[in-house]
Input
Amino acid sequence: MLRFIGVRLVQMSLLFLVFLTLLFFLLQAQPGDFSRQFLDPNIPAENRDLIAARFGLDQPLWRQYLTYMGNILQGDLGVSFARYPRSVVSVISERLPRTFFLFTFATMLSYYLGFMLGKVLAWRRGGSQEMGITLGGVILYTVFYPWFALVMIWFFAAYLDLVPVNQFLTPIRWREAPFSANTVFASIIWSTLLLTVGLGLSLWASRKPDNLAQQRLIRWGGVGLSFALFLAFWLPSDRRTFATDIAHHAVLPIFTLALVAFAGVMLITRGSMLETLKEDYILTARAKGLAPKTIRDRHAARNALLPVTTSFVLGLAFIIGGGLITETVFSWPGMGELLLVSVQNQDIPVAIGSLAMVGALALIAHIVVDVLYVFLDPRIRYQ
Amino acid sequence: MALEQKPGDLQADPLVALEGAEDLPAIELTDPLWRIRLRLLWRNFKKNWGLFAENKIGLVGLFIIGVFALMAIAHPVLMATVWGGDNTEIYDPVIGYDAVVKEFIVVEVVTDPLSEIELIDARFTNINAQVGDIISQPQQPAPPSSKHLLGTDPLGRDVLSQLMFSTRAAFFLGMVAALVTVFIATTVGSMAAFFRGFVDSFLMRLADLILLMPLIPILIVIGGFWTIELWQLGVIIGVLNGFGGVAIVLRSQALAVSVKPFVDAARVAGGSKWHLIFRHVIPNVLPLSFLYMMFGVTEAISLEAVLSFFGLLNVDMSWGLMISVAQAEGYLLRGLDVWWLLFPAGMAVSVLAAAFFLVGRAMDEVVNPRLRQR
Output
């Protein structure tokens, strides 16, 4: 097992180096010039050359490549052209949490709903109800996403006026704010993270005792305590109004994303459940006379979890690429939006940096999936 | 014609040999081999069609695809007849223009936007306009009328004509992308599974590499080198998918096929490597390839719409562009008031993509016996 992970890690690092090389030369080969794109066209030619030399852009491409790779190994992704003098690392570390915030919520919501509905769908196969839900699910799954997001914005933000139209926050409310948006956002992230950990721990701990009353006590006590701590942090805090402003802006994108992603999960779960239901052990379970609900939830659904987990972990890695549309349509300043804008503006350091980030996350997710398989399905062994 | 076969062929189609054994004389005297093959193919098709038709969802998908195909065919016909002649300037999907003139009553405060106009707006047309006057104003976008069944867009072009015109492009792109994907992925997957070793790891690492790249930014970067035409987009999507994700799936299928006994039998009978790949492995991977072809069409249609929605593609007219125009002209948040700008195009992309996906799902149940109801 350890050896397998080691081999995979070596393979992945090699692949990542090739990936970086490819990105570097692909983006550098684009027509267009840094000095024409980002510098005042009126400055004299010698100053232009001087600036290019300061960035090392006058050197031959292979020298630039070696320097870049050397820097990247030290965790330095360079400076952004468009946001000079901010470093790429600081731009990404500002954007990445925003994307994760949006997508973690949406993904968790959609996987919970999708898995629940998918397994029921496979169980009640063949009815007109199933056909209706499947049809609706497929339409949500293949819906033209930017258009769907626009319709959602129109309906919930403009027509019903429930949520603000787009953006990350309402600028006018922040004019006098004593903190920066990033500080408030960081406390949102940490508090929700701790809340999630608290909820998870109490659910996990409640499985331990075999006494039903104790189980209940631990479960509800833990959930209550987590929420109480969460509220105790936020209610007296003077950041509360600003935090709610950000949360208010996040509601619609999260909801829209969850709606679209949920359909995909439902379809995967349904397919995986249908295959599992053909297994002999389901027949055995039926023959034993177990309750249908037990067969469905304990015997079939747990074994059908494997492909769903794969798509969950891989999905988390691809959120940046997929977040591009969501973030652009909702004007949510996250990684996807950064990726699109930097690639379009040829802000090459940021573009390579964020593409490399996407790639690194995808590779890590691959390894996680491989390891997770062993825990989920004891039949899988790696030599 | 005598039944002369290479040994490999006999193994290729065990059914042919069986068929021959059942009523040997009849075949030997009357039917050439290709006709038997054709008949077998037909019988196979009928059986699979039965399985396919059991699933109503697949039929719904086929029906929707048929409707869209009719729309695509009808557009040139309509342009040549009803919308042709003097009307071409009006109904051309790209350069057509028609300002629908409508009469409004000038009022202080608008209560019914369909028949009334505010004084300040009216004075743009006629500086002397007064409250109570009736004023004729060209409308862009114009709501549906008998002349324009789905109204006109913000540039005064007929929406129905645009919608039908774009159908052809969507089909074309989807087909190109899907065919290229399947051709490459089947070849790559089969070769990787058959040769194993270096070829396998090289092709699979290549697939991993391609999977690391988010498609939209990469297409933007490629778009920086030259202006991408529609067919080129199809080929690029096809190549990226064909060497990427689909190849991995088809490789695992080919891996399962290449260890089947009939492949060994053909090898023992003296079949060459290429013979084994092209006559034994690939034909057994093809059903799954067709399935991914359907999903490929879905993906290509959505991707094209997304790209032209962001204005990243060089197309004259497409569904994504129609919505992009509506958004750029600021009609987005008016929702149902201008439904003909937002809904026909958006629904067309979604429904056509869904239709191909539904057909793919129904085919999945034909290809994968474990998913079948019985």
Remarks:
- Chain A is about 75% helix and 0% strand.
